[in-house]
Amino acid sequence: MQRGDHGLSLPDGVRIGLLGGSFDPPHAGHVHLSREALKRFGLARVIWLVSPGNPLKAEGPAPLSERLAAARALTGHPRIEVSDIEARLGTRYTADTIAALQALYPRVAFTWLMGADNLVQFHRWDRWREIAHRVPMGILARPGSRMAALNAKASRCLAEARLPAHAARALPSAEAPAWCFLNMPMSPLSSTALRTARAGG
Ligand SMILES: Nc1ncnc2c1ncn2[C@@H]1O[C@H](COP(=O)(O)OP(=O)(O)OP(=O)(O)O)[C@@H](O)[C@H]1O
Ligand SMILES: O=C(O)c1ccc[n+]([C@@H]2O[C@H](COP(=O)([O-])O)[C@@H](O)[C@H]2O)c1
């Protein structure tokens, strides 16, 4: 067990899914993705990494404290945890966050989780190949993004590292690069739609 002043207590050997996001606002689609990932990848816990700000998004999100509070109020699941560790570590780029977590918790098996829409533009992330070589990646279907994700630049570059869906439970202990795409009953929810609805659009 290793503890720090980062608010995370992770036992050695545990299989942890990391779901990075703006969560602006969080919604049931995030919970749905997390529950599927827990079950189908055989994870002990999913940690929501609430981002101080997506480096690719020009517009700043709502204040971090608001998004954290909303995420904590929403999850209601004993194995979904909400973390502000990126703010505590001072990291914004995923490659830096993962490197820092692996340095802090060298015996924890981290799996990076994302919806299919994020795989479509994953090759635009800073040091995306490094991320893929650091952690296995679990990708979950999202309406409208399935084919685009499977044809994306990163998917093509990492084609040999793809595990079939029936091997999903082996993903968290697979040596990176390794990724697995899972179909699931899809949730049409998105933060963009919720923000638009709130603004009365
Ligand atoms: N309905 C959903 N189904 C599957 N994955 C989802 C869904 N909603 C969000 N995700 C995934 O959760 C992660 C965090 O998402 P994020 O906080 O950006 O929410 P979002 O709804 O995608 O927001 P926005 O509309 O502002 O892009 C991303 O990997 C995203 O792909
Ligand atoms: O590191 C990067 O270059 C990078 C670029 C775009 C997005 N991300 C991460 O991807 C996650 C999803 O972001 P978002 O805003 O789509 O919810 C979140 O953890 C971001 O920090 C990371």
From TrEMBL:
Organism superkingdom: Bacteria
Native organism: Roseivivax lentus
Catalytic activity, reaction form: nicotinate beta-D-ribonucleotide + ATP + H(+) = deamido-NAD(+) + diphosphate
Gene (UniProt): nadD
Family: Belongs to the NadD family.
Single GO biological process annotation from the record: NAD+ biosynthetic process
Residues in Cytidyltransferase-like domain copies: 18-196
Pfam family, one: CTP_transf_like
Pathway in which the depicted protein is active: Cofactor biosynthesis; NAD(+) biosynthesis; deamido-NAD(+) from nicotinate D-ribonucleotide: step 1/1
InterPro entries assigned to the protein according to its UniProt record, in alphabetical order: Cyt_trans-like, NadD/NMNAT, Rossmann-like_a/b/a_fold
Molecular function terms, GO-annotated: ATP binding; nicotinate-nucleotide adenylyltransferase activity
Descriptive protein name: Probable nicotinate-nucleotide adenylyltransferase
E.C. no: 2.7.7.18
Function: Catalyzes the reversible adenylation of nicotinate mononucleotide (NaMN) to nicotinic acid adenine dinucleotide (NaAD).
Keywords: ATP-binding, NAD, Nucleotide-binding, Nucleotidyltransferase, Pyridine nucleotide biosynthesis, Transferase
Broad EC category: transferase
